[in-house]
Amino acid sequence: MRIGLLINDLSGGGAEKTVILYARYLSADAGHKVSIYTLQFAEKAYEIPPSVRQKTLISGRLNRGPGRMASLPLQAAELAARFKRDHVDVGISFLQRSNAVNALSRRFGNPAKVALCEQNFAQDVYPPNRLSGRVMRSIIAKTYPMADRVIAASRDVKAGLVELGVPDQLIDVAHNPVQVPPPRGPQPRALGLRPPVITTVGRLVDLKDHPTLIRAFAILRARHPAILQIVGVGPNEDRLRALAHELGVGEDVHLLGWRDNPYSVLQESDIFVLSSTTEGFGIVIVEALACGLPVVSTDCKGGPREILEDGESGLLVPVGDHESMARAILQLMEDPDLYRRLSERATKRASDFDLPQTGRRILEILSSI
After folding, report:
1. Residues 121 and 236 placed together within one structural domain of the fold
2. Inter-CA distances, 94 with 128, 131, 260, 332, Å
3. Which of 6, 11, 177, 359 is the most buried (most CB within 10 A)?
4. 345 lies in a domain?
């Protein structure tokens, strides 16, 4: 089978990482011929498997600025021609703009089966009080039903799509893949020999709500020595640094910037915390679990509750509640039995999302189209 994976670009992010992992599995493990198509050129954050080719649409140069939505039909026409020329059997797209292009390509004679992978809870990412949000909601409602199948990253994401008018029977749920690293034993810091290292990974944007995490850290830092590591880049970096200094914890909050391999940081950490207000899936939670880290996460819309099995595999706290978050982190720091139980549970739960399992699920869905 010839498979085309379509995404906006391959800059850093969870969806981009998912594309690379699926490309690796579908080509090397499942034996299919795979190409990655991007709507626009951008510097790659992840290494493309050697057997996979990357192709960028020429019309991608129109993919920036206020006219980028108007360029969707032109890109759809080019994609249809590319898929036809390359004899693609199935085109799988990721993120809303690529999904719209993939779906619209049916109108321009795309002979391939069309599958759209939705990673986000659209109601939160595209609020109705903004024109751009209303436009994207309308595009989703009109284009997604054109697909042969829509694949949601979590049950909440599926529910959100149904709410926007995508037929329930068109949607399957398939969790994002994770490349689980080799298991490691408990680290010295986890045994209380050094100040605990608390880590989060995510873009420095409002939806990740890092201020709540920094405020929670300031509370627990008043009781215990600790370090907070924030991995990611984004427009809120200066504000987060200022907040940490304002709360008196600037010396203990480390903004580490972009890391293409979060495991190098996670494996030297003790606790992982996610403070997002919405999270379509939450691949970083699974990566933390894979390193044996106990997890504290907001109980936001999307994947965290699903991944953490309603709190059985990690601690859930209300969105935006820094005091509850601080209490949960302190509970892990002060209760060795709870820490040990969640650490042992973590790697077992992470194995449920390992690439071979999630890859087989995607192939199962594609075979049913």
Report:
1. no
2. 22, 22, 19, 36
3. 6
4. yes
How do residues 124-165 score in pLDDT, each as one tens digit? 778 788 888 888 899 999 999 999 999 999 999 999 999 999
Q: How many CB atoms within 10 Å of residue 331?
A: 14
Residues 6+ apart with CB under 8 A from 17: 46, 283
161: nearest Cα among 76, 170, 103: 170
Would 135 be classed as within a structural domain?
yes
Are both 55 and 123 inside the same structural domain? yes
Range of the domain at 216: 188-353
Residue ranges of alpha helices (H) inside the chain are 14-24, 72-85, 96-104, 122-125, 131-143, 155-163, 210-221, 237-246, 263-266, 283-290, 304-307, 322-334, 336-350, 355-367
Cα torsion through 364, 365, 368, 369, rounded to 10: -150
Judge whether residue 82 has pLDDT over 70: yes
Q: Is 52 contained in some domain?
A: yes
d(CA 116, CA 146): 10
Same domain for 305 and 291?
yes
Contact (CB, 8 A) for 203 and 235? no
Is the model's pLDDT at 189 over the cut of 60?
no
Q: Which residue has the higher pLDDT, 153 or 42?
A: 153
From the list 257, 260, 285, the residue with the least C-alpha distance to 272 is: 285
Listed in sequence order, the DSSP H helices in 202-267 are 210-221, 237-246, 263-266
Tokens linked to 161? 């799509």
Q: Both 167 and 217 in a single domain?
A: no
What pLDDT, in 10s, does the model give residues 227-253? 999 999 999 999 999 999 999 999 999
Is residue 38 within 8 A of residue 54, CB to CB? The reply is yes
Listing DSSP states for 262-286 in one string gives THHHHTT-SEEEE--SEESS-HHHH
Name the β-bridge partners of 354: 178
The pTM assigned to this predicted structure is 0.88
